[in-house]
Specification:
- The structure holds 2 protein chains of 2 kinds.
- The radius of gyration of chain A is 18 Å and the shape is globular.
- By secondary structure, chain A is an alpha/beta fold.
- Chain A is built from 8 helices and 9 strands.
- Chain A has 2 domains: 1-64 and 140-233, 3-Layer(aba) Sandwich (Rossmann fold), CATH 3.40.50.300; 72-139, no CATH class.
- Chain A has helices spanning 41-49, 81-92, 97-108, 123-135, 153-168, 180-186, 204-209, 219-229, and strands at 3-12, 15-25, 30-34, 56-60, 66-69, 141-145, 172-176, 189-194, 197-202.
- Chain B starts with a helix and ends with a helix.
- Chain B has 3 domains: 45-159 and 240-248, abc type-2 transporter like domain (abc type-2 transporter like fold), CATH 3.40.1710; 168-232; 252-445, no CATH class.
- Chain B contains 16 helices and 9 strands.
- In chain B, helix 2 (16-38) runs parallel beside helix 13.
- The interface between A and B is medium-sized, with 17 and 13 residues.
Chain lengths: 233, 449
């Protein structure tokens, strides 16, 4: 297993954000974390990324770098695309920062915008830079918090192609999303969270199957019904 | 429009630091100015040691003057802080309770009375001052000069009457008594008449020995009388002599101090705004969480920001001083000390800016807070002791100790001018400030993620 999470608990001011969450993820697997607002998705990913610490439970991660792509682009808008990539490559201690920058510019297809200030890029391209920074150190695990939020369908498509390519190289990708169709389409496996509890861990087909066919015309309806049936409507 | 206003108020409500500052700032400024206007002395507070025996009378030119009313008149011009000894007066000045101390010696009245005699002894008063900065030194000089000039003018009127009688004697002639012996003074007019008579009637070769003898005697006595008048004339020009003694402080020149103030204010704004804004930018750009998850530690990030502030402020301040060299003389031979002062001051301001930046959610809020806090602190740090009430000055002392402006200004004054304060104490003070604000900034960064 690339990742093993057991009985993870996190509280904020007495309110439980995660209530004993457990799951595994294999190398090269795309795990989608979905759930309603306040379910604990971002808290879970920030604990895996090492930004927050858990109150209880264990997290087992593979050795090497963990790539982290926060929901809001964590980049310097007044630096150019290339300057951002070079800065973070150096901070990550990448052996050959120049080569890593070129690799990311190729991967994100932003080579022709390398000299542009990030502030002048579209939201989609800013998110590409944001993800590229998370991939600079060629991590064995990539954590993405709502990577496609705010992007138009064309940019979302390009983004998932990029992420899929990376997972194909053996990187474990865990992403959270509000777009359940994206989770169904791109996730190998789904982890459904609601009010800090893990309600489901399995494939999209498995989730669909857990709901009577007459109650769900598509996956989104099946997901909503699934939550409602378990008291999270 | 209404909803926009509601939205802005909601945003303000969610920025507790800015909101608190917006409320506290005008109140603090109002209280500060209110205290200064209502509680602060309108007159300078001067420790007053009067060693003249009680009930002593003063007679000048036949007129008896009331010493008590003269004392009251003086204390209506300044706020007299009665003290019982020179040591106590010195303490009051050193502690800043009094702007200066005025010591009137026991023999002051006797010496005053001799001013109208042919053996005047100039009366002296002693002024003790604490010249902790050149602005204060100038203030003390102006106040004391004004008081002494006024007293001298009053005395000069009385002494002038006596001086006039001596001059009349020389011009018109008459009898004068000196050391119990009577003398006849011919007078310039009589001498003129005698000489005119001799000139008209005497043949060139006739030796009118007696008349010439009288003229020769007159000339000699006239010269002696004028010699006697010399100290009197000096006394008229400046009856009271001021013996000025600096209790503590050796201020640099006013030019050096002005340069030090300009450099310190520049250093403060550049460094505090830069560091506060730069640290707040890490949060605004969402880069902070990415940085501190292993790329850079929080303490290292703080050290980088403080280093940035010190480096930039050093360049900016040295460029400013180089520019000032075109207009005023700067002792570049003291460059290592100037650099040490700028680096120490820059580090103090940078740590202060880091604490503000770490507590701010965004660059604009950080910059606003940095500006609103720095400006009054700088003003307060320039208030000389003895010019406001003791309670208010105690509060000012606390502000000076807590913020880097005052030690940075002292270090800069010491760096720029050999007559300024030594660098050791202000640099140690700044080092303590760096540690304190660095620790505060580090604590504030814990809630940054």
């Amino acid at each position: 297993m690339a990742i093993e999470v057991r009985d993870l608990v996190k509280r904020f001011d007495g309110r439980a954000a995660l209530k004993g969450v457990s799951f595994d993820a294999r190398p090269g697997e795309l795990l989608a974390v979905i759930g309603p607002n306040g379910a604990g998705k971002t808290t879970l990913l920030s604990i895996l990324a090492g930004i927050r610490s858990q109150d209880a439970g264990t997290v087992s991660l593979p050795p090497g770098e963990i790539g982290w792509v926060p929901q809001q682009a964590a980049i310097y808008r007044r630096l150019t695309v290339e300057e951002n990539l070079r800065l973070f490559a150096r901070l990550e201690g990448v052996p050959d920062p120049g080569a890593a920058v070129e690799r990311m510019l190729d991967l994100t297809e932003l080579g022709d915008r390398r000299g542009d200030q990030v502030a002048t890029l579209s939201g989609g391209n800013q998110q590409r830079v944001n993800i590229a920074i998370g991939l600079l150190a060629q991590p064995s695990v990539l954590l993405l918090d709502e990577p496609s939020a705010g992007l138009d369908p064309r940019h979302r498509e390009a983004l998932w192609e990029l992420i899929g390519n990376f997972a194909g190289g053996g990187t474990t990708v865990i992403f959270s999303t509000h777009y359940v169709q994206e989770a169904e389409r791109y996730g190998d496996r789904l982890l459904v969270l609601a009010d800090g509890e893990a309600l489901f861990d399995g494939t999209a087909a498995g989730l669909h199957a857990a709901v009577p066919e007459s109650r769900a015309r598509d996956f989104e309806e099946a997901f909503v019904f699934f939550l409602r049936e378990r008291g999270h409507g | 429009m209404r909803w926009l206003l509601v939205k802005d108020l909601q945003i303000l409500r969610r920025s507790p630091l800015v909101t608190a500052l917006l409320v506290i700032y005008p109140i603090a400024i109002a209280v500060l100015i209110g205290f200064a206007l209502s509680r602060g002395p309108a007159k300078p507070r001067v420790a007053f040691l009067d060693e003249i025996p009680p009930g002593q009378q003063l007679t000048i030119a036949g007129t008896q003057l009331d010493v008590t009313s003269a004392r009251s008149a003086l204390c209506s011009r300044i706020e007299c802080l009665p003290v019982s000894s020179v040591a106590e007066a010195r303490d009051k000045v050193q502690s800043g309770d009094a702007l200066a101390a005025l010591v009137i010696p026991r023999d002051f009245v006797q010496r005053l009375e001799t001013l109208t005699t042919l053996n005047p002894a100039q009366p002296r008063v002693t002024v003790l001052v604490n010249e902790e900065d050149p602005v204060k030194a100038q203030l003390v000089d102006d106040r004391i000069s004004s008081l002494v000039t006024e007293a001298n003018l009053k005395l000069a009127k009385k002494i002038d009457q006596v001086g006039s009688s001596y001059l009349n004697l020389i011009v018109r002639g008459g009898d004068v008594s000196l050391f119990g012996q009577g003398f006849e003074i011919l007078g310039l007019r009589s001498a003129q008449r005698i000489l005119e008579a001799i000139q008209g009637e005497l043949p060139r070769a006739s030796p009118l020995q007696e008349a010439l003898g009288r003229v020769i005697r007159f000339a000699r006595l006239a010269a002696q009388n004028l010699d006697v008048a010399k100290p009197l004339l000096r006394a008229i020009s400046h009856p009271i002599e001021v013996n000025r003694e600096v209790v503590s402080g050796s201020p640099p020149s006013l030019d050096s101090f002005a340069i030090a103030v300009a450099a310190t204010v520049t250093l403060m704004f550049v460094t505090v705004l830069l560091v506060a804004g730069s640290l707040a930018l890490e949060r605004e750009e969402n880069a902070f969480a990415r940085l501190v998850r292993g790329l850079v530690g929080r303490t290292a990030l703080l050290a980088e920001k403080i280093g940035l502030g010190v480096g930039v402020s050093l360049v900016v301040t040295l460029v400013m001083l180089a520019g000032l060299t075109l207009f005023v003389s700067i002792a570049w031979g003291r460059a290592p000390l100037i650099v040490a002062a700028v680096v120490a001051g820059g580090a103090g301001f940078a740590a202060f800016g880091a604490a503000i930046g770490a507590a701010s959610r965004e660059v604009r809020a950080g910059s606003l807070i940095a500006f609103m806090v720095s400006l009054p602190v700088a003003f307060v740090s320039l208030v000389p002791s003895g010019t406001v009430s003791p309670g208010l000055f105690d509060a000012i002392r606390v502000v000076r100790a807590l913020f880097p402006f005052q030690p940075a200004l002292q270090a800069m004054s010491g760096g720029l001018d050999a007559a300024g304060p030594s660098l050791g104490v202000p640099i140690l003070h700044l080092a303590a400030i760096v540690l304190a604000y660095g620790a505060l900034a580090r604590l504030a960064l814990r809630r940054f993620a």
